[in-house]
Every structure is written in structure tokens, then in C-alpha cells.
Amino acid sequence: MKRLHRAWAVCLGCTLMLLVSGGLCINAFSVTQPYILALNGFTNTETSMITTACSVTFLLCMFVVNRYYDALGYRLGMTLAALLGAGSFVLFATAKTLAGYYLAGAVSGISYGLGCMIPVTILMLRWFCACRATALGICAAGTGLSAVIFCPVLSWLIERYSLRVCFFFASGVSLALAALVFLLIRPSPESCSLAPFGVQEEAGKPAQRETLCIRPGRLRWAMLYLGMILIGSIAAPGFGHMMILFTSSGFSGAQAASAVSVFGLALTLGKCVYGAACDRLGPPKSNRLFGTALVGGLLLCALAGLQSTALMLLAAILFGVGAPLSTVGLSVWAADFSSAEQRAQNIQRFQLCYAIGGLAFSFMPGMMADLTGSYAPAYVIFALFGVFSILTVQSTYRLESGSPA
To answer: Which residues contact 221 (CB under 8 A, 6 or more apart)?
Structure first.
């Protein structure tokens, strides 16, 4: 029986880190927002500002993340990112004031900023010569997996016990996963006296899809950066307010939690399928399919006021299927739009734009709810942002092909 390559163990370690830093700290945390709002008497805007505090520190981490890993290395650095996630839940559990919640949100943002797709992408580029986009999709699926597994669990813990018990449980899970991250992560194949996965196939046919190395001009780069900012606004605030969108539209907490869980399942599968699709079909075709799902899901979210359970679940599924564009897509596009020397820098720049978008629009849904009485208008705006971002990326691919993408 052929031995499984060590690269897949590193892939699992990256998946578990993202499950904590981007999953529990960001995606699963959204389940707690309606309870934080109800139990503490905060306004919608004040509650949204917890996400803003997270987005601020996430953005700041984008400026130092490469130096952080240069100083600590990938094994220790990624483990510490997961441990910070555990610490943020302890702070949430003990928070008694709005400032306490903001501090906890800021620490969760640091966990996500240091444990983001930048180190994951660099490790996958080191460890994989074949199936790189597929490996990236598997890693990124950790954030969606957290919603599938933990959203209903956290909701049940809050209903049965308390918000405090829910946060302490999340902290314990994060600690256990941090230990596994430390055991699984290795910085490079060379550190284990191995060759990257798929390298033996290079003597025959190509082991992976060729990167296109498109060279956009300055105006095109400006449009791409704006597109990444707007898609960042969809990924973070868009999902972060899904739970409260549905509960404020008349659905029960259990119904809304089930929709978030369905979103997580669709997101988990979508990331794996999107990565594989990029390897097999190429990004332009994959972008069309997943971009249509993303925009459709956002528009259906805006119809939450109809109180149709079927539409709510369909919105969660389509939104989840399309959301991988904001994670796996950023890494794939950065690779295709860059030379090998510029790749790491452009991955960081795309992630920085993503962080800016998450921060700039983090409080927008809450403000819209305070102004209009509903979170639905924010999702119409998110859908328009998605259209612009996808069209910008697709038209950039046409620079290389000379034909419609």
C-alpha cells in the first residue's frame, strides 16, 4: 500500500488552524451575536462593532504577518495563532462590558490575522507541486467545517446553559486543536528530507495546471485591489451578520442556527470543489459558476423578510457555495496574476485588501438595520459588490486569453 505523502498531514494541520482562527473565531462566533445583543442591551451598531474590533486587528496583522513567521517559523507561529483564538473565547466568557467584548473581538482578529490564508498558501506552494488549488481548498474548508460542526453545538449550549459556558467550550476545543496543529505542521519538505507532493510526475506530463502569469497594468491592479476590498466586505460582515439577519426577520434562533450550519456545510464542500475545479477547468470557468452562486445567495438573503424556510436554506447554500471565491479564489488569482517572485507579495496585498474591506464595511449591516429596521438592504449592496469583483477578475483573465472568460 502506497504511503500517504507528508504534505497531506501539513494540509490537515493548516485546516485545523483555520478551523480555529477563521472558523470558530469568525464563522461560528456569529451564532453568539444575537444572544450578546439580547442579553446585554446593546444596539445593533454596538454589536456590529465587535466585528469591527476584530477587523481592525486583522487588518493590522496583514502588515506584520510575514515578519511574524520569519521570526517564529510556521510551526510555532501557526500554533500561537490558534492559542490566541482560545484566549479570545476566555475573554468573551468573562466580558461584562462593551469594552470587554471589543477587547475579545480584537484578540480574535489577531488570531485570524496571524492564522490566515497567507501562511497556508505559502506552505501549500512549498509542499505541493500537484493539486495545489485542491490542497488550498481543503485547508480553507476548515472555516466552513467549524460552522457545520460547532454552530448548532454552540447554539444548544447557550440555550441549555449560558453564553459563558458556550465560550469556555469553544476555548477548550481551540486549545486541543492548537496542540494538533503543533504536531502536524512542518515548514517545508526539505525539513523532512522529502520532495514536494507530485514532483515525481514532472518528468512526464505536467503535474498541475500552468499558472498564467498575467501582467496587469496599473489601472487593472487598482481595479483588482478594489475588487478584493469589496469581496472582503462580503466574506466577513456578510456572513457575520447572517444569524442576526434571520433572527431579526422572524426566524427562531434554532432555525437561524440551522441555516448557518447549512451555510458552513456548503462552504466546506464549495472550497474543496472550487479548488479542484480550478485545477481541472481553470479559474475563469470556475469563477463564473461560483460567482453566480455567490450573487444569487446574497440576493436571496435580502428576501429573508418573506420568512420562507426554503428560501432561507437556499440562500445559505448558494452563499456558502460562492463564498470560496473570497478565500481560495484570492490565492489562486494572486498566483495567476503574478510572477513567481511576486507571488508571496501579491498574496499579502490581496489579503490586505480583503482585510480593509472587512473593516470598512463591518458596521454597515448594523447601521443599515438601525436606519431601515432591517438587515436585508445590506445584502443587496453586498450582491452588487460581488458582481463588480467577479467581473473585474474575469476581465483580467481575458487579458491573457484574448477571448471572453
So the answer is: none
- Give the pLDDT mean for 344-360: 85
**What counts of helices (H) and strands (E) characterise the chain?**
19, 0
pLDDT score at 86: 96
Question: Which tens digit of pLDDT belongs to each residue from 60-110?
Answer: 998 899 889 999 999 999 999 999 999 999 999 999 899 999 999 999 999
Residues 6+ away with beta carbon under 8 Å from 141: 15, 267, 268, 269, 271, 272
**Amino acid code (one letter) for 202:** E
Residue from 147, 153, 41, 154 nearest 93 by CA:
154
Q: In this structure, what C-alpha cell is assigned to residue 241?
A: 451578520
Q: pTM surpassing 0.85?
A: no
- With a CB cutoff of 8 Å and minimum separation 6, the contacts of 119 are 14, 65, 69, 74, 77, 78
Nearest to 385 by CA among 237, 284, 272, 268: 237
The sign of the torsion formed by the CA atoms of 12, 16, 21, 26 equals positive
